[in-house]
Specification:
The protein is of the alpha+beta class. About 35% of the residues lie in helices and about 35% in strands. It has 5 helices and 8 strands; from the N terminus they run αβββαββαβααββ.
Length: about 170
Amino acid sequence: GARRWLASCAQNADTIATTEMRKVRRDGSAMWVRKVARAVRGFGGQALIVVCEDITERKKTELALAEREAQLGLAGKAARVGSFIVDYATRRIQLSPGFAAIHGLAEETDELTCEEWSARMPPDDLARFEALRGQVFAEQRRELNIEYRIVGADGEAQWIESRGLVSYDGNG
């Protein structure tokens, strides 16, 4: 793979190419390397300049973080505790596996629109939520806490307790 990458770099002069690859040190231990290469013309021909950076610690940290996120997601599903991020500019909600489980959504669901979420609420709960949200935003409060119902595909209502931390951009 490394040879193919270098050959591709050599064929595309003046293009910067980046890759990350696992290598084995002389002592047999593994390491991760980030390589940046560029083929340049000059000095009577073409040269390939390659800069290598040891990113082993970063890769270990990324792996540990991914494992921790998987554990947290599993714990959230088991405990029926979830988290979410709502971006009102795009009207999209990013959600955790626990949130999906609580709301009876497919396990792989990681995003909803605000409209998809609100369609599952009884109209009186939705009106109460929208009124509270409007008040919280108008006063630029940092928390939005509410209890509301969602209606599942089976028609059964389920109570949800939601505690939200609110952040504002430069436009409020």
